[in-house]
Amino acid sequence: MTDRIPITKPKLPKRAPASIAASELTITDETTFADATIRGIDLRSRDLNLVTFRKTTLQTPTWANATLPGLTLEDTRLVEADLSNFTIERGRLARVEFTGCRITGASLHQTLLQDVTFSGCRADLAQWPRTVWQRVAFVECQLNQAYFNDVDLSGVRFRDCNLRGADFTGATLTGVDLRGSNLEDIIITVEQLRDVTVTTDQAIFLCGLIGLRIDDEIGLRM
Question: pTM for the complete prediction?
Answer without folding.
Answer: 0.90
